[in-house]
Amino acid sequence: MKALSGRLYERDPSVVAEKLLGKRLIRKLNKEILEGIVVETEAYYGLDDPASRARHGLKNYNRLMWSEPGRAFIYNVHNNWMFNIIAHEPNEVGGVLIRAIEPTKGIDLMKRNRKVENLHDLTNGPGKLTKALKIDKGFNGVFVTSEESQIFIADNKMKIEIGRSHRIGVKRDLPTDLRFFIEGNQFVSKAL
DNA sequence: CGCCAGATTGACT
DNA sequence: GTCAATCTGGCGG
Q1: Does A133 map to a domain?
Q2: Is A120 within 7 A of strand C by CB distance?
Q3: Looking at chain A, which terminus has fewer C-beta neighbours within 10 angstroms, N or C?
């Protein structure tokens, strides 16, 4: 298992959001491995994106949106941690929100972390998966391109069909479809 | 400093 | 379907 390099994230957020589908998200927790397949993502941009954390310009709390592609950007919404990976072309701003994963390893521990038994309810939402994988603000800024980070993305040979839709839960969305998911997968947050 | 909104979730009128 | 919990940061709504 090898973390994918930062080059993957040096592209437009939409391209990265699509490329992350089917990849493995790996979380080392003490001696245990928690792992899942990325099945749903959303792309966020900079000042021109009314739903982006970067929309108000560079602030201390959102400065990671301007930083090196491949870093984690984590922040809180309604008491839930959102896990994003910074992704943009040089001198641009943007990131990708991981909205859902399909659990593959460490499922019992995920169930304990979430305090739920139902497999399909374990990681089918952005706040759910961070709780299952014990990801919080402490990981803000780490590089998911390094296995040392204890959170990283690895490749996966998988044939998938990709679906698109508007972003979920945002007040003001852009006219483009910026949510990507694996068609037919049972672990996406919402069937539309 | 107080109030409000938000890339959500879970419980329930 | 409706709605409140509860954290973080913006802004003076």
Answers
A1: yes
A2: no
A3: C
Residue A176: pLDDT over 70: yes
Average pLDDT in chain A: 94
Tokens 């296995």 belong to A147
The structure tokens listed for A13 are 């957020």
Bridge partners of A33?
A: A28
Instruction: State the total domains in chain A.
Output: 1
Q: What is the pLDDT of residue A77?
A: 93
CA A110 to C1' C2, in angstroms, rounded, equals 29
CATH number for the domain including A117? 3.10.300.10
Residue A69 lies in a domain: yes
pTM of the model: 0.95
Q: Which bases of chain B come closer than 7 Å to a protein CB?
A: 5-10
Q: Which domain holds residue A177?
A: 6-182
Nearest of A153, A28, A178 to residue A85 by alpha carbon: A153
Q: What is the pLDDT of residues A146-170, one digit of tens each?
A: 999 999 999 998 999 999 999 998 8
- According to DSSP, the β-strands at A162-165 and A151-154 are unpaired
Q: How confident is the model at residue A12 (pLDDT cuts 50, 70, 90)?
A: very high
Residue A187 lies in a domain: no
Strand C closer than 7 A to residue A47 Cβ? no
